[in-house]
Amino acid sequence: MSVHTTVVFTDLFGSTGVFEVLGNARATQAVTQVTTWVAHIVELHEGRVVKMLGDGVLALFEKSPSAINAVVEMQRGHQHLMMKIPPAKRMPLRIGVASGDVEIVEGDCYGDAVNVASRLSDLSGPHQIWANSAALKGADEAPGVRFRILGPISIRGRVEPCTVYKVEWQNDVTSDFLTLQADLDPLFDAGNTDALGGQVELTWLGIKKTFKSFELPIHIGRVRDVEFVVNDPRVSRTHARIDWRNGSVMLVDVSSYGSWLRFSGGGADILLRREECVLHGCGEIALGSSFNDLSAPTVQFSVS
Questions:
Q1: What is the pTM of this model?
Q2: Second label for 188, Cα 20 to 30 Å away, from 26, 37, 70, 261?
Q3: CA 157 centroid distance within chain
Q4: Are 285 and 259 in contact (CB under 8 A)?
Q5: How far apart are CA 124 and CA 8, in angstroms?
Q6: Which parts of the chain have pLDDT scores under 70?
């Protein structure tokens, strides 16, 4: 059966590290408590939980506004819950939302909207909600909520890029509340940032360069005329580009063999093959070969 619906994917970022800290039994209990609570929020907003995905939830909503209201409530409620938890045990939510045609088969769902919502959840950062433009049709910016366009983003398996928005939900919270999101990088110096408010630091084999947002875009590759040179045969001549787009630092793969992205704090590795992703916090970028290859040319990044 084919239906037009809104798909929501939620994922707990950093759950792998929590399993290391708490052990399997206690971590499983903590994850289950959160996913059960997320499922309850879905049902309160007239959505339907399709299935639990370990540390995530897949849900469908008949009405897009209901889906947007639900995911905003999830982020706000979950953030308040984390205020009572030590930093090492926190698991922020990241959420992808997409509207489109979906095939329902024996209670499960398949289709482009499912794939897009899953991919947006993977590409978004902790505490974030990313949605395709179709998911915002009919939805209003409620108090403290703003829809900020990130632009067209390539999604694996799709010919056409997807226009993506970030649903900002934190405008009505206090500064104390916001400071719980993450610890400040001890290397961060507010005096070194530009008026746009962002910079990215790249490191490879002792080579370290910092690029302020007004200096972007810059390119990573093995030829001498790019801004950040990684001299390895697995790296394309121009392998990746780092853009400043609507207040976000974007990594864009333009290579022959792809880039792998790993964020500090947990989460699955992300493969970008002619795709892009928002860079946030700290992590690593493997160029032309996955992290499974211990000799892969790997660039460390830090965004502040």
A1: 0.69
A2: 261
A3: 18
A4: yes
A5: 13
A6: 171-197, 246
